[in-house]
Amino acid sequence: MEYEVKFLPDGKRITIEEGNTVLSAAIKGNIDISAICGGKGLCGKCIVEVIEGRTNPPTDHEKRRLGEKISKGFRLACQLKVHDNIVVNIPEQSRTGRQRLVIMGVEPPSRLNPNVKKIYLEITPPSLNDPRGDDVRVLDILSKLNIGNITINYEVTRKMPKILRESNWKVTFTILGNEIIDIEAGNTVDKCYGVAIDIGTTKLALFIVDLNDGTVIFSDGIMNPQIKYGEDVISRIQYASQSEDALREIQKTIIDGINSLIEKGIRETNIMRNNIYEVVVVGNTAMHHLFLGLNVKWLGLSPYAPVIGKGYYTRAKNIGVNINPIGGIYTLPNVAGFVGADAIADILASRIHEKEKLTLLMDVGTNTEVILGNKYGLWCCSTASGPAFEGAHIKFGMRAASGAIERVRIKENFDVEYVTIDNEKPRGICGSGIIDAIAEMLRTGVIDTSGRIILQNHKRIREGENGKEFIIAFKEETANKEEDIVITQDDIREIQKAKAAMYAGYMTLMRKAGFKKEELSEIIIAGAFGSYIDPSSARLIGMIPELPISKISFLGNTAGSGARLCLKSIDYRKEAEEVVKKMKYVELAAEPIFEEEYINAMYMPNSDLESFPEVVASIKAPKVVRKYKKR
Amino acid sequence: MEYEVKFLPDGKRITIEEGNTVLSAAIKGNIDISAICGGKGLCGKCIVEVIEGRTNPPTDHEKRRLGEKISKGFRLACQLKVHDNIVVNIPEQSRTGRQRLVIMGVEPPSRLNPNVKKIYLEITPPSLNDPRGDDVRVLDILSKLNIGNITINYEVTRKMPKILRESNWKVTFTILGNEIIDIEAGNTVDKCYGVAIDIGTTKLALFIVDLNDGTVIFSDGIMNPQIKYGEDVISRIQYASQSEDALREIQKTIIDGINSLIEKGIRETNIMRNNIYEVVVVGNTAMHHLFLGLNVKWLGLSPYAPVIGKGYYTRAKNIGVNINPIGGIYTLPNVAGFVGADAIADILASRIHEKEKLTLLMDVGTNTEVILGNKYGLWCCSTASGPAFEGAHIKFGMRAASGAIERVRIKENFDVEYVTIDNEKPRGICGSGIIDAIAEMLRTGVIDTSGRIILQNHKRIREGENGKEFIIAFKEETANKEEDIVITQDDIREIQKAKAAMYAGYMTLMRKAGFKKEELSEIIIAGAFGSYIDPSSARLIGMIPELPISKISFLGNTAGSGARLCLKSIDYRKEAEEVVKKMKYVELAAEPIFEEEYINAMYMPNSDLESFPEVVASIKAPKVVRKYKKR
Fold first, then answer.
1. Do residue B431 and residue B371 come from a single domain?
2. Edge-to-edge strands, sheet with B170-176
3. Which residues of chain A carry a pLDDT beneath 50?
4. Which of A300, B221, B276, B582 is most exposed, with minimal Cβ within 10 Å?
5. Residue A303 with chain B: CB contacts under 8 Å
6. What is the spatial distance between Cα A492 and Cα A127, in angstroms, rounded to a whole number?
């Protein structure tokens, strides 16, 4: 028996088999609904309002997440089963929404040497005295131009004789690697494009590059549509590991997203799809594998070995990416299960592997890649910093979209000043706002260094369900005027866990590599989210080690920059293979040092106060710390 | 409106749109019917007997070809249009029939070095201390075994992680060229097969080779099923040039034939389809192109340039050959439009390119490839010797099947002794029988050296429609007891044209290369048909130059041998590329020398009597010759 689910406010109707959840109907209909935990009833983000139709009784998950909201008709889409035609409304806060994405990143100057080359030839036609084959004729000329060892793709051989003769033997060949993948009549050398893609766990950035001059002619970003299957990497690995069909489905989701961006780029720039010849992709190892449709089961199981570690070439049509049908795909090397091609791209773009002095690079995201080193060596790890910086697991957390509080200052009297994105009335707090808020609470002594809210008897302090809460915006100031926007004790814990993971990752690498604190001379923050962090706040809460602010730089989406570099020059691909060989990967799951550092980093800035002398001198928070050492 | 055509004796029913011919219904139904001219009404071979149904009036072609047979209900399938449900019978002589095919050929000893290699590896599983990617793990081992620069096919990466773990990291990789194309659990190194195919214009020979020891484990041949589209290369080029669909259709015909042989081979040898990894194909340039599905339009137009001249690699699945789905195809190089990969295979197998002394190689078929040379140089051409040697254009000609007269001796009193295939009562005369008959007629003076029948007043001489005929078998001796089996004046002309083409090809090469007659020291006859020719008869009629019989050898299907060599060792592929570079191709269509030699070679043995002293001394035929010299 099938029923229809109608989703308001858009009014889209989805038919689905009885017993399935409203969330699966939304996924089926590609309807924008937040489902951070992947439909397990844990995150409480997929709230919908039942307008019409019989429903199943609320589950324990819903009771825990929604409380008395249930009586007002709110339910979790992942728990709500379809046993009737049903109409639900998706409140704005349940939508993943359009988001401010940092797409561009810093990119070093590069010499063009792309893997795809177009070459215009005027060929002497065959004659009775020279009846060589068309292929011989072409390859002989190329050989004279020092372009040797070339093969001709089968599809090209099928159309070549006609095009050669119809164009009067004046043609342009497209050579990808060492294979002729296309032939066009006349001189089309100026029409040669490639696509660079950075697949983040939460965002997808795509660039179309003119391979004749290296300019970016189109760039855009969207949310990674795989978010429907869970906001973190592990949820998606679990989903994709269910079956071959599930893997294909989650792969198709990202490919559809990529194709929609390519479509948009083609429309906006008026180029031809057939003139896009190569796609270079970076992403963490799981994103890389899901893009390629590789089995991710063992990425989620110790020792987390990837299927593909090296740079990998395949055909666009194997993957379903809509460029020239014989176009190619190149993915950068992965270091390990949780340090992927995006980290290599970060390195290529930031040139950390060429630096004389010890440098720390953190690509901040749902997973944060931590890379430490210089030209003498590179250490790396990945820490599950979680989606807290993206607003998840935070009571009033939201993505960096309109109305998100992104800057917070707390005055001496604990009054709060804040800035929202687009200067809208506040709807919630995004990552940089949360870091700011907590740093300010620490600086002004609203909390102590253990993160406990200690301020009392102030209008901004209230008792919540799970302890004290600090009010950032009173409900009258907010967009819906219904609720105060607060930072809860639990929110602080979430941020502590996230920043502790990052710092502990850094410290683990430092200790494993045997570096001394004083050796660190530079910090590079990369990643879409990273660009909006106030470095003082990040330093204050101990997310990054204490260095002068001048030594902290933000390079933006260096993963995307690295992808573009490899698109523009194969020299960077060779460099990538060299870099990956030099990298020493530390698996934190197996590392007692990490556990120890993590517990110490739960304090703000850290239980190791000596490492943060300036920070410690600047905060009013009482220093309640207990140093932990693993026996 | 559609009607049904029922074909007797098999009773197969084919539905076809009104207005189409019975021949096209037969082609659609894959029904065995001879159509040498490709359905133009010219060859008169596709005779059917109308049993039931309304028919269109006989065409002029039919009146010319069938005469009074029309009144008995006989029609040409290519002229008979479907305007009713109709039942026709296909008489035995209209069937292409099962034929005695020479499949094997002489093959020089070869060192195994196939393009496909299987390698069994026991791999150390990943651990937290060594979390390298599965690909890195594999490629690192191969690299240590000096197998470098290897890529992994996309389909393999999709199944690799599961197979590695389920097999406890004991697996066998199949490497084709420098790409891993398969992974199997456990050690399957002993299961490694390849297929060698010789696509002749009239026959298709297929060999399955065990690539571990080079042995042929299966060999079989069938008629080239493309014969439905015309018996000669030009008819098929014309058919395939009509449209992309026609090209696909004629390609599919040969691929289906190949797949049926592979199927049979798999069944008979109990090997697995997935363990066949590569197919090596030879054929003349047109057969090569039709196999690959390449545009043949310009193969039929001066200057007859092929699309592909070099050795070519592609995937079996591009072509539709049913082996391992990621298996490969290799086709040998083509020299020019009418000297193809089969000629290169002939050279590789006969080693003519290594000989010190001047050698003539003729691969006799519907087209005869003529190769002249030694290790110092190779000259080649292709002559349209036509299907007369295969029995076409000969009044009682038939293929080398049961009941075909294959040996003829004429006594002093002009009585005839003959041998038939399978010792059946004679049904017609096959190629070797026709050559024997004419040689004997020449030797005994039934004809003069111009080919004219001069014997008179003998019971074996009768007047036919177009002049005199010599009776080989009286009707009482024959299978159907209805007609005398005769050699007509026209038959003699057909054979004269065929042998003149071959000899003129040889002489043109001799003169273009500047060799003297005395330099020729060896003749090699290759080709399925060639094996049955009596060398004395061939020499007598001047099909080949006069050398001692001991200097004439028959190597059988050397094209197939060359294909097997290239399957067993890539060293031969390199050699093939070297050989093709050394070959000097002479296009006879543009060659006045050829015209002159052709006219002289219409005499038997030749108007140049001095070149055939032994022959001239042995024949009773009056020497009426006029030497022709082109101004």
1. no
2. B116-122, B170-176, B179-185, B151-152
3. 98
4. B582
5. 126-128, 130-131
6. 81
For residue B88, the tally of other CB atoms under 10 A from its CB is 25
CB contact under 8 A, B157 and A585: no
Dihedral, CA of residue B560, residue B562, residue B564 and residue B565, to nearest 10: 170
Are B427 and B325 in the same domain?
no
Q: Across the strands, what pairs with A74?
A: A49
What part of B 321-350 touches A (C-beta under 8 Å)? 334, 336-337
Whether B171 and chain A come into contact, CB under 8 Å, resolves to: no
A587 and B CB contact within 8 Å? yes
Whether B131 sits inside 8 A of A310 (CB atoms) is: no
> What's this model's pTM, rounded to 2 decimal places?
0.84
Q: So what's the pLDDT on residue B573?
A: 98
> CATH number for the domain including A53?
3.10.20.30
Contact flag A303-B133 (C-beta cutoff 8 Å): no
For residue B180, give every residue at least 6 positions away whose Cβ sits within 8 Å of its Cβ, in sequence order, or none. B138, B150, B151, B152, B153, B156, B173, B174
For residues A7 and A75, membership in a common domain is answered with yes
Q: Are A134 and B306 in contact (CB under 8 A)?
A: yes
The verdict on residue B378 lying in a domain is yes
Chain A residue with CA closest to B340: the answer is: A133
Segment B45-57, tens digit of pLDDT: 888 988 888 889 9
The CATH number that applies at residue A174 is 3.10.20.880
Amino acid at A233: V
What is the domain count for chain B?
Answer: 5
Q: Decide if B231 is inside a domain.
A: yes
d(CA B260, CA B629): 51
The answer to whether the CB atoms of B127 and A315 lie below 8 A apart is no
The reply to whether A306 touches chain B by the CB within 8 Å rule is yes
Q: What is the C-alpha to C-alpha distance for residues A277 and A117, in angstroms, rounded to an integer?
A: 9
User: pLDDT tens for residues A246-302?
Assistant: 999 999 999 999 999 999 999 999 999 999 999 999 999 999 999 999 999 999 999
> From CA B46, how far away is CA B66, in angstroms rounded?
11
Residues A124 and A170 in one domain: yes
Of B127, B159, B305, the CB nearest to A134: B305
Residue B329 inside a domain? The answer is yes
**Which residue among A142, A169, A185 closes a domain?**
A185
Question: Do B256 and B335 belong to one domain?
Answer: yes
CATH of the domain at B575: 3.30.420.40
Which of B135, B162, B165 is closest, CB to CB, to A310?
A: B135
Helix axes A341-350, A570-582, angle to 10 degrees: 110
Residues B162, B309 within the same domain = no
| Core vs surface per residue B219-243: b (16+ CB within 10 A) or e | bbbbbbbbbbbbbbbbbbbbbbbee
> What's the confidence (pLDDT) of residue B422?
83
Query: Any idea what the Cα angle at residue A215 is, between residues A213 and A216, rounded to 5°?
Result: 150
Q: The tokens of A292 are what?
A: 């390629």
Identity at A463, one-letter amino acid code: E
Distance (Å, whole) CA A427 – CA A405: 8
Based on its alpha-carbon atoms, the radius of gyration of chain A, rounded to whole angstroms, reads 27
Residue A72 structural domain: 2-94
Distance CA A417, CA A423 (A): 13
Which residues are CB-neighbours of B59 under 8 A, at least 6 positions away?
Answer: B41, B76, B79
- The closest alpha carbon to B560, from B37, B72, B104, belongs to B104
- B216 located within any domain: no
Q: How far apart (Å, rounded) are the C-alpha atoms in residues A44 and A244? A: 29
Of the candidates B485, B515, B545, which is a domain's last residue? B485
B474, B519: one domain:
no
> Lowest-pLDDT range, A116-120, A366-370, B208-212, B595-599?
A366-370
